[in-house]
């Protein structure tokens, strides 16, 4: 599989020769992926190709699905195999935050939504929480809009605001990696644009892995792109290069839209 | 506008196809009929509900008028006048009995030793007599014969008695309150018992005398207390005398009035029948019959005169008695012989001045009381909704005050909800979030099965099992610090509340479980992704998000509990009185009656259309309104806090 990795930058997420299966059905075959620190990596591919499954392998969200398991290979975050016995799931998810396809703020106040992650990790100091909330909302470009109504109910926000609130909630605990599962698919174009801008800014502090259906979006936001097809990683490389000169035929036909 | 030739009207092809084979049944097409069938079914419920409401209102509405009429007679005949004194005076009996109890508990420790000896001895004597009954009876019968039988005839009988008695006396099981010597003496004396001698054996006489001496001594020791008790007992005698005479007078007036109105009602019916009768002969007969039963309404002004003439005399007695009650409070000794007695004395000392004051306050009302003051409809409404006594089939006056029933229903429902809420909500949380599929398969049907237990069966359990259990637990000495322990009544509000809680659990559990189930998966995903543990997710996200549904579940459980009848009727104790809240939380162990229970119990026994009958319908209406309000609240809660559709 052709990849162009940068040996100078150590990878933060490494997927090594991984097979992933739901029960007897193998969903991902021999995936190798090295995600570079503080870059945006996009996962693209047709529906059902396993993008989301791959994404959810990184924070072990698949654990809850009965029968789901890694059949072969391993996933490493910061060099540590995340399925090792001594890995604390809570700590892993503190390192690897996640934003979902549909915005899902809790039915609580804006403030409590952002503070939730800190609270479940045992933070009691109000001062610390307050600072973290302010920082997260600022990074999510929400602070100016919402600073006067932090005690308002989160479900009263607009769709785009709710999704950015979810991003703020995910980064409040300062994860290393931020997983985004089609974060804009339920949003209008303007809200989408705002989120994309936000992703650019987030890449300064976080490693972002984003699943997207929208190839323009992949071009706009990502530094690297991985193309998956039928559970296999077909091609992985710098976004610019891949969209200009795809090495694989399959990638080219998908990008051209002449996919069959 | 351009004139175009009108297009030829042609039914579209689709219609033609659809109409093919379409039949009509009695002029209507089958689809319409089917639709009509479903519509009719749904409207039946609405119509039935409307009919129920109309019926309830119709039966209940007459109540205010009827009760007003009864209260008018109550006032005009003068019963109200007597009650001004009688009501506060009734408290005296309770106070008096408390004092008597104080005396008993004070004296008891001193006399109980000698009393036990005396009682044990008498018991032994009775046992011996019982055991030798077969031998004694023939002798007793022979002795009564006239003329007296010859000695030869009596002697064998005497010997039989002596033999049997000696044997019984020897076998006697003498308790250890007697020394060995005393036991021997008892045996000797009892061995000589015979029906021919009616005098008690000397030892029994001695024991009785010892008791009398000790009793006297004890009474002397607590002389002031005994005197105070006697004084309070006798204090209202004169007042009672006057009052009873007056009560007799006014009751006669009331009975005359009641008879008059009953006859009048019959007469009106006869006249109505007469006006409809076709046959002139029959008509004449009916009118004659009606005239025969014609009575005059009693002249209230005249009949109240002898009562009012004694007004000042009555007031004088009231004042005198109040003074006596005050004096009794002052003279009451501070301490009794036991802690319990001292407690009783403290209570009585505190209550007496209030008692006297209540009576004195009545004096003013006695002076200003007028029989012709009209009874307003608000008085009647107040008498029902705020009346504190529900008194029926009384020889004096019936009262339909609904507060005691309401309080009973509400307290029982609250107890039930307080017990059922943690049970059902915790069970719902466990089943929904933690239980394995196998556990779910067991828990859910089992909890829902509780609903299938007939409430009357639960009533049995309450009477036979829970009641005894609570009573036994309450008698465990080291639990005595709990309020209300040890309890007096097996059947009480707590018992009923426990069983109702059991009945409410399935409803509340199912609804709460649904509420938790409806919490969108997205919230759980988000919480998991943030690294929350299962417990954190459950208690910080799922339960708060499902809280409105859980609140609605609790309210609907409340609705179920308020309307439940059989269990409360069997288990709540059915005492129609406002429970005494002065004892704090221990009040839950008192018996009470309920809105539902009273209807079930009394409706079958009252005459149709009477004030009592109508009052029960009013209770039914109130119950209906309460249930409606509770259900409305539950709906409002759900709507107010509804989560966005995921």
Automatic annotation (TrEMBL), chain A:
Pfam families (UniProt xref): ABC_tran (PF00005)
Superkingdom, taxonomy of origin: Bacteria
UniProt GO cellular component terms: membrane
CDD domains: ABC_PstB_phosphate_transporter (cd03260)
GO molecular function list: ATP binding; ATP hydrolysis activity; phosphate transmembrane transporter activity
Keyword Nucleotide-binding: yes
Organism: Brevifollis gellanilyticus
PANTHER family: ABC TRANSPORTER I FAMILY MEMBER 17
Gene transcribed to yield this protein: pstB_1
UniProt-listed InterPro entries: AAA+_ATPase, ABC_transporter-like_ATP-bd, ABC_transporter-like_CS, P-loop_NTPase, PstB-like
Keyword DNA-binding: no
Protein name as catalogued: Phosphate import ATP-binding protein PstB
TrEMBL record, chain B:
Biased composition (Basic and acidic residues): 276-303
InterPro entries named among the record's database cross-references: MetI-like (IPR000515), MetI-like_sf (IPR035906), Phosphate_PstC (IPR011864), Phosphate_Transport_Permease (IPR051124)
Record-linked PROSITE patterns: ABC_TM1
Keyword Transmembrane helix among UniProt keywords: yes
Primary localization class, coarse: membrane
Taxonomy, superkingdom: Bacteria
Protein's membrane topology: Multi-pass membrane protein
Domain ABC transmembrane type-1: 406-634
Parts of the chain that traverse the membrane: 37-57, 375-393, 399-429, 541-562, 615-638
Region (Disordered) residue spans: 274-303
Gene3D superfamilies tied to this protein: MetI-like
GO cellular component: plasma membrane
Subcellular location, record wording: Cell membrane
GO biological process, one term: phosphate ion transport
Key words of the record: Cell membrane, Membrane, Phosphate transport, Transmembrane, Transmembrane helix, Transport
GO terms of molecular function: phosphate transmembrane transporter activity
UniProt similarity note: Belongs to the binding-protein-dependent transport system permease family. CysTW subfamily.
Physiological role: Part of the binding-protein-dependent transport system for phosphate; probably responsible for the translocation of the substrate across the membrane.
Name recorded for this polypeptide: Phosphate transport system permease protein
